[in-house]
Amino acid sequence: MVTSRNPIDRAVDILITGALLLLAATAFLPLINTLAISLSSKSAVTGGMVSLWPVGFNLFSYEYIIQDEKFWRAFGISLVRVALGASLNFALTVITAFPLSRSRRAFPARDVFMWLMVVGMILNVGVVPWYLTISNYGLIDSIWALVLPTALPIWNVIIMMNFFRNIPKELDEAALIDGANPWQMLWSVYLPTSLPAMATVTLFSIVGHWNSFFDGLILMNNPDLYPLQ
Which of 67, 70, 72, 133 is most exposed by smallest CB count within 10 Å? Predict the structure, then answer.
């Protein structure tokens, strides 16, 4: 039998929903302000007259960008970086997280490798050794300088590893009984049941590569090779 909800509970739900919607709306205000500035005249922007609505509406900024060859070149470099980097991140994350999610009996050296990665994530060697290492590999002024140094994001590995560990062991045992090898288990059992974690780590990688600007500034001596940021 379905019972009607208490009016107080409904009121609380409405208040919470309203508060969350208001909080979400405030997150869009800086974006709206940026859009309004891009559509306003220079004098209005300089005078601080633009808030959430364009003042002196014009499309000059967009016309300038569209006609700028350097913008499109940098945009293309960023797209290539995201495609290469996210693909490499995903592949290495999955094949690293899977063995680390196994039991000590199946992978006795699991804890050793896990600690090595955690220590490497926590202890930052600094910019100079990082730059010299990349330079010694001959990657300066190469797209691979933007991709290979971050090929294995440890935080993503930890996310995938913990997700794999929560997959019911009965699926593991069923796959073993059917004669599946580790690669078949990963492809047929673990990946299809890990779509939320896969989407999360892929989004992290895409956003990370797209927003990164420091490595492009340091590792590219030729301005024509800079990514968009």
Answer: 67
Q: Which two tokens stand for residue 208?
A: 């990370």
Q: Are 154 and 121 in contact (CB under 8 A)?
A: yes
For 173-200, the pLDDT digits (tens) are: 888 888 878 888 888 888 888 899 999 9
Nearest partner of 207 among 77, 93, 32, 86, judged by Cα? 86
Phi/psi class of residue 40: alpha, beta or left (left: φ > 0; alpha: ψ in -120 to 50)?
A: beta
Residue whose tokens read 């892929």: 202
Q: Residue 90's pLDDT band (boundaries 50, 70, 90)?
A: very high
The percent of residues above 90 in pLDDT, for the chain, comes to 40
Chain centroid, CA 68 distance in Å: 28
**Cα 91 from Cα 136, distance rounded (Å):** 25
Helices (H), the chain: 7-38, 42-46, 60-66, 69-100, 110-122, 127-136, 154-165, 169-177, 182-185, 195-211, 214-219
Residue range 100-124: mean pLDDT, rounded: 84
Determine contact, residues 52/33, Cβ cutoff 8 Å.
yes
Q: Give the 3-state secondary structure of residue 104.
A: coil
